[in-house]
Amino acid sequence: MTDPNPRHALYELACRYAQAVDRRDWPQLATLFTPNAQLSGPAFSFDSRDAIIAGMGALAHYELTQHHVHNQLVTLDAGEASVETYGIASHIYVRDGQKRKLDWGLRYHDRCVFDDGDDGTWRFASRTLLVDWTQDLPLEG
Q: Rounded CA gap, 16 and 32, in Å?
């Protein structure tokens, strides 16, 4: 079976990643990756789905996060896809008693594979986070 609308499904995969991370829903996040998936970014690298989920504990530093998924470019090649997704991630945290908001302008470079198993869905085989810019300001209101 092939995916009748892979571009939509790949955009939805990126949105489900954002939702799972922001909700700290690690079981849901695990379903989005292949068992041997890799996730890397500035100062981190995880080499399996289990390591990715364990590594997400670093988000405990933030009271909350909110990932916004923007434009996405997809190159399809049979059951694989190269995907670049732009977005902004906001991180709320406290430093020296002051609530702050750290924003990242980011891009994800992904290699996704179509899993033709029971659920016939796209999964991340590798995901690389690139941070293009940051802004860290006191949060008011």
A: 8
In this structure, what are the phi and psi dihedrals at residue 137, rounded to the nearest 5 degrees?
-135, 155
| Torsion-angle region of 67 (φ positive above 0: left; ψ -120 to 50: alpha; else: beta) | beta
1 within a domain of the structure (yes/no): no
- Say if 90 falls within a structural domain: yes
CA of residue 3 relative to chain centroid, distance? 21
pLDDT in tens, 117-131: 778 899 999 999 999
Model's pTM, two decimal places? 0.93
Q: How far is CA 126 from CA 36, 47, 98, in A?
A: 9, 9, 36
The CATH number covering residue 78 comes to 3.10.450.50
Tens-digit pLDDT profile for residues 4-37: 689 999 999 999 999 999 999 999 999 999 999 9
